[in-house]
Amino acid sequence: IEGLTHHIALQNIPHLFVIVFLSLKIFAFVLMVLSFIKIFYLVYSTNLFSKKLFCKIFPSPEWFAVLVNKVNKNLKTSIKFQITDSPVRFTGVIGILNPVVIIPKKLFLLLNEEELEALMYHEGGHIINRDNTVRFIIHICKSLLFFLSFKKKLYDNWSIERDIICDELAVSYTNDPLNLASAVMKTLKLS
């Protein structure tokens, strides 16, 4: 009888492995579907957010257009800068394929021309370095690798490093770190 029960127990082990394996496959599939839903929501909400921003475009003065041309000429690119009358309180880059620098009207009115120029070079650096594209890819990886505990720290370190690189770019063109520092301080006070 002892050999018979041992034989029956061994027969059940492969079935147990099959059940566990199928359960893990189903669990992984559900997690993958949830990750893709999260990614879709990220893209969808970003699209809605940018549409809301572009509905409230503030007409820019002529001197700002001259400043935009100067920044684009120096960076050897064609970056679109928009002043928006939306509740956003910080300057940032929106979009992946056709990125646009958004400048809130309140901040625009608060900064002097030199501070604004430094801020424009900084944000232009994010576009030149394709930081939004990389950020989007990082968000996808964070969604798919949700179980890794160190991903937030990696993302935060990457984000700080990118800002430092863009700060250095802005200072290299304006030759005055105080203008950038002043613009950052005014941005922080506004937000």
Task: Please provide a written account of the structure.
It is a single chain. The protein is mainly alpha-helical and 191 residues long. 74% of the residues lie in helices and 7% in strands. The chain is built from seven helices and three strands. The chain has a three-stranded mixed β-sheet with strand order 1-3-2, sandwiched between helices. The longest helix has 53 residues.
**Shape category:** elongated
Mean pLDDT: 84
Low-pLDDT sequence parts: none
Structural class: mainly alpha
Counting DSSP H or I runs of 4 or more residues, the number of helices is 7
**Rg for CA atoms:** 25 Å
Distance, first to last CA: 77 Å
Q: SSE order in H/E notation?
A: HHEEEHHHHH
Keyphrases for this structure?
191 residues, mainly alpha, three-stranded mixed β-sheet, 7% strand
Give me the secondary-structure topology.
Layout (H helix, E strand, L loop, with lengths): L1 H53 L7 H14 L4 E5 L7 E3 L5 E5 H6 L2 H16 L2 H14 L6 H24 L2 H14 L1
Parallel strand pairs: 1-3
Antiparallel strand pairs: 2-3
Helix pairs in contact: 1-5, 2-4, 4-6, 4-7, 5-6
